[in-house]
Amino acid sequence: SPVPQNGIFQYINDHQDEYVQRLKDWVAVESDSSDPEKRDLVNHMMQLTKDFIVKLGGKVEMVELGEQEHPSGKKIILPPVILAEIGNDPNKPTVCFYGHVDVQSAKKEDGWLTEPYTVVEKDGNLYGRGTSDDKGQILALLHAVEAVNTIGIPVNVKFIIEGMEEVGSDGLDKLVEDKKDTFLSNVDYIVVTDTPWLSKKPGITYGARGNCYFILEVQGARRDLHSGGFGGTVYEAMSDLIYLLDTLVDVKGHILIPGIYDAVAPLNEKEIKLYKELEFNLKDLEADTGISKFLHDTKEELLLYRWRYPSLSIHGIEGAFSGTGTKTVIPAKVIGKFSIRQVPNMNPSVVEKQVADYLQSKFAERKSPNKINVTMVIGAKPWLADMNEPQYLAARKAVKRVFNTDADMIRAGGTIPIAKNFEEVLGKSVMLLGIGGPDDAAHGQNEKISKFNYIEGTKLYAAFLQELASI
Ligand SMILES: C[C@H](N)C(=O)N[C@@H](Cc1c[nH]cn1)C(=O)O
Ligand SMILES: [Zn+2]
Ligand SMILES: [Zn+2]
């Protein structure tokens, strides 16, 4: 039955068990977008999401995006994207929320203490892959819409929910372009519900790094070789690859590719002052990660290098022997994976050429007869907004109402591949309003969301909808 406006928070408190159960149901679906074998599960997750939005009274369209060329060379059908809406009053503003229900891979043997796809509640936390990134955040939003709708939705709400974010949002840029004069034509604000806070204090995010993801193949012999028979007589593909990967970045995290820092926007004093005022403690980061020494010693420097400068990370090697035991093989073909986080005003196409030219020249110096191939498979641009836009004000008011504190205005080191496209194509304000905690371990072992963030975050989204109606 309808609840009065001030009863919405009570309504949310009263329904928390149901919210936790739904998170359990969603996490149980292993919607890993990187694995072609799991594509049916991603599709199933899209269907579950659709069914829930329909149950909330939403109008839902599932848009097919066609085929994806998987990095393995396989062609597979992309999962559909959900375009949905609740409310269509021309006198009200329209906010479009974006998020994703795919996840990064997770296996118990990676070092999880519990089964990754079974939510376990312990010490006030809900553990499981996707609890924070991003199923928990999407669910908090949907539950908020449901709660607010008990007294009538104060703004028109649209949703774009996808199942390929973790691998670069394949096909979504074209969809945004295609829908700019139809589904997206009346959207006033875009809100991304997929980001963590910097500390226990709620944060509102006005910038995110982009990402250029590279695949570096080295092909040696036609087949794997016995290292007894061939060791000492062949140029090994793995040695070439490790050499090349080691030329990319130095021990202090400085990227060695010529020109890579050229486009980085110059730093100004105002920014450093902003960072100084944020709640963030290196000791908390040490405790969370078990790292005793970071590349930077002060909070301001650490944030600069997380948000404001590019970084290069080496992620893995496909084709390398990685099992237990002592196999004595010389792998014939190995594929290195690395990515470079992008900041304003870097341009992924320029970075693509800088990386390819550099690796080719380093490889030529080595005079190995093996073959290399460099491909950029994701080229997501960085995004930075004006934190004084009206929806940021509504978000600040909502934070104050729910948490009785001022929000920290923060940036994200991670990437929302579609964020910059929203801004460029629609010309509308984009904001990241997330409810993840700073130590949620997104992408890592034992990912979690605290029950506090999940439930109070639901209230935050509810309050935001109401505040947005009155700005
Ligand atoms: C911030 C968001 N939850 C996320 O994890 N995004 C991914 C997107 C991505 C970038 N390159 C490949 N995928 C990330 O930042 O790693
Ligand atoms: Zn995410
Ligand atoms: Zn993620």
UniProtKB/TrEMBL annotation:
Keyword flag Transit peptide:
no
Any one GO CC term of this protein is:
cytosol
PROSITE patterns recorded: ARGE_DAPE_CPG2_2 (PS00759)
Lineage at the top is: Eukaryota, Metazoa, Chordata, Craniata, Vertebrata
- Enumerate the Gene Ontology biological process terms: proteolysis
Q: Which SUPFAM superfamilies match?
A: Zn-dependent exopeptidases
Origin organism of this chain? Pelobates cultripes
Q: What is this protein called?
A: Beta-Ala-His dipeptidase-like
Any Pfam family = M20_dimer
